[in-house]
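From the shared-data thread, chain only:
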Amino acid sequence: MASRPIKKILVVGGGTAGWMTAAYMARWLENTDIQVTLVESEQIGTIGVGEATVPGIHQFIKDLDINEPEFITATNATFKLGIEFADWAGQGKHFFHPFAGYGVPIEARPFHKTWWSARQQGYPEGLEKFCLCTQLARSGKFAQPSFDPESRLAWYNYAYHFDASLFAKFLRGYAEKRKVTRIEGKVNHVQLDATSGFIQSISMESGLVIESDLFVDCTGIPALLISKTMGVGYEDWTKWLLCDSALAVQTKSVVEPDPFTRSSARTAGWQWHIPLQHRVGNGYVYSSQFISPEQAHRELLGNLRGELTTEPKLIRFITGMRRDFWYKNCVAIGLSSGFLEPLESTSISLIQTGIAKMAGFLVDFEINEKHVAEANRLNRLEYERIRDFIILHYKLNGRSNPFWQHVRGMEIPESLEEKMAMFSASGDVKLQENESFKEDSWISMFYGFGVEPRGLEPLADAEKTFIIMNKMQAAIQKGGDYANSHVEFLKTISD
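Structure, as tokens:
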């Protein structure tokens, strides 16, 4: 296939995926004559529940040169330091996955290994005490991190919770100011070129025909362009990720918003709690094999605080990925490219990285077969690595319900088996190409679920090591004491 130049880009579908794509393209292409158009219909709703993010969102905000306080105010955002997992390791057991690591190396040994050896020799404190990010979250506090080389204990990252519909609205305004054209209406036909198989144009119900060189499918789960029109298949991962349904509902805030997301294990899945400035996003992700929608509905409502502001919305899905997210002149972004349950808040991250791959591999603003193939290869790796990380949560669970027993006993991908075996044997994490979650995240999971690494050497001088660790803990405690509450920090932004 010869390279094909790009002069027009058409984004089909709005919502978070569509307007993130349009806004990024507007910024990236602002000094070119390439036209960006987005078509969407106000009659077609969006899922709009992907309201928690991971720290990579900072790069997107930076790339668009968006002012953080302006963004936070416009989207009713709060800060997110990580995720609390309640009852996953067993009833009454809680642990935290922070956007940070633990301690600093002692005598060139990774801190988590030193800590584990110290525990075996009587050291009383848990690993979470050596993470400022976790301690801030537990105390309901927030402060901008410092990356001073002399203060490594203060290194941590953060993300956001925000209103997805307000985020899309904010990005729409950003994109339209930068000459993105929006067309309202429904698509009723997609025309393929009879020779090349490329998309040639779309026809609107109004009769308008829109031609383009590159089409971006942001139509969500229906995947109107890449699936229904171009026939690109979907890889089903429900043998590993059994949850296939979600009930989403919003409630009024009754307490100050925590600077973290909460995931609480339930009978046949888990419940999310995402606090925004003005409300709380809640939902129950569950397996319909193990609980009925009516039972899930009752369980969700029975575990909510605050008055409902919306009715519970049922969402059906199949976990997995599109076999190719980029096919000929069509790129699938968002749910049209795949779905991984929002356990680690990766939905918006996958939109962001999908856009970045599309832009990065449009070398010289041309579609090139080799570049498309490499973009698809990297996209697959990214999905598979995130998939494995999510499966780990289920595989290591400590619950007794039938659903949880089933997922604990299931076969898992070989790539995950290798990671689990290596950590159990040596405390090491085997990172592979294109990992979204780095070593510290895997360490949080393994220790949070109580995995005990073997083969770690005992401390040569336990007394001296204990003194150093106590000093670290005291420094972290002091840093936490100086921080404002999360709510106070938010007020400084709005003032």
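The chain has a mean pLDDT of 95.
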